[in-house]
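Shipment paperwork, digital attachment
Item: protein structure file
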Amino acid sequence: MKKRKSPLFEVKTVDSNFYENSLRNFLPNRIFDVHVHIWHNKLMKGREDYSRIVKWPSLVAGDNPVEDLLETYRLLFPGKKVTPLVFANLGDRSALEGLNAYVSKSAKKHPIPALIFAVPEWKGKELEEKILAGGFCGTKVYLQYAPLYIPTDEIRIFDFIPHHQLEILDDHGWILMLHIPRPARLKDPVNLAQMVEIEKRYPRVKLIIAHVGRAYCNEDAGNAFEVLAQTKNVMFDISANTNAWVFERLIKAVGPKRILFGSDLPITRMRMRRICEKGIYVNLVPKGLYGDVSGDKHMREVGGQEAERLTFFLYEEIDAFRRAAEATGLTKEDIEDIFYHNAFNLSRKSKKYL
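Attachment content:
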């Protein structure tokens, strides 16, 4: 890796103090990060439908090549060894081949485990061949790739991860990283029913629900944890979520063996603090740092001492989980499971990297 002329991003005293005082001793020495995007911006070729995604994550980093990711870990986790599970960023369908090829090449070079970004129109055999050829451990799917004639609010899980692909994942025992759709997020009854259906019909699929099902505010939970407590294998990553109340209920519902640490880097390099207002999450960010955010209901600028106290999104996420872990009495061994061992045991295909 070429020597960097300037730091990738600034680590301030407020960040170093936060890490040393709240996170270093809480975190195990080995960390597995199951939710990471890597890409070169030159591969993106635009995005085909901005109406299906929030725009603010793109303000943090124009790209995140694997070298930047490894440098991010060095800066944010001094004294720790971090292994990522990587996949591409969202681009239009014409960009997927190049994006997935870059992820595969990067994973083999370093080496680290990786997931392929899949689209629902691929036949089952086509998905299988692409995963095997690229050395992937499974797939990442996203509602953006559901057929465009389906209104965004009406997209269902099986619209972008169809049954013929789930059969292939089940045959091999591969990972499925799932970002669930629909405005009601985790509490949506259709989402809950289809998550449970995946577990029942495809028991060998290693299903990971990203972001704790996008339950960023208390209002996003509903009766979801009561429903999900009845499942046996569904796993949840905590990426890009800072809600300690949600984390507590997740821990009580499924226990520490089915929770995984994920970062959602590079967006969690954002300097921010999240609040909720009437069930809507709002990221408080330093004034001027991310350009004009006045039109985004999820972003709000702050100034003065409040801005100076803001640290990284990723630190806020981990600290929220630390508070939930303390409130629920998790042990040191439980924390090691969540931040490392659970991912280690996910797939035999991953073990060679760990």
